[in-house]
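User: Before I run my own analysis I want an independent prediction to cross-check against. Here's the chain; please return only the structure tokens and, at the end, one sentence I can use as a sanity check.
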Amino acid sequence: MRSGELAKAAGVTVRALRHYRSIGLMPEPPRTESDYCDYRMSDLFRLLRIKNLVALGFSLERIKAMLEDMDNPNLAKDFEYLNALDQELVIQIEQLEEKRRTIALLKKEQVFADTPFECAEIALYHLDQNIPSDLLELERDALLVCAHLLDKDEKEKAFSALRSIKAEGQIDKYRDIDLEIYNMPEDASESKRDELAQRIVDLMMPIVTELGIDPTEPISPEDEALLDHFKQESMSGVQNDITRRVVDIFKVRLGVPEK
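Assistant: Structure tokens:
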């Protein structure tokens, strides 16, 4: 049989057949006088075995070892391969189920598909709301940065605070303040900036106290540099100024000593 005939008989592509041959899964066949491959029925049997093992989910690398073992039939060895694959499939199924849970949560919360799973429940804004697109982008970027920079304990504290905001029905107050910051002009007065920063701290203070969170706690120089880049590129001057004022007020409220 020529390559095309063998591939058709086995239900695979000629390209797949050539690939199997190039990596040693299929033997190099004898050639005709015209230099065409001349496959035998034994090659078809081997190709069908490869096809069945691929369908089960075995890697080509493992199939190569299996075929060598199968040339000397050993049922115990076969079971060993099957058990190993079974365990791998259990893990893959768990991973797929986790992905489905993530997708379900992202759909439920109506947030961007690239939102970190742990952030989906705490997003202030949803895609179905009449929110300015750049404000949606700002929150999206902020959540990505937080999920990347914070360690497990820091994430748990920060996200617990935001979950508490939602649970206590104060989400609208946070959205209103967020929109005020977003809409505040660059020439806003000092009193306006101070008043808004005070309201932010007043709203957050009960949750900060309850959860034992210190929003003024320093971070590593590397993370600080990355955060500075984010603030410079993603936030306006007035937004950065209000953020700084919020931190300063927290330092006073929490009794953080001056450095």
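Sanity check: Residues 3-57 form a domain with the Multidrug-efflux Transporter Regulator; Chain: A; Domain 2 fold (CATH 1.10.1660.10).
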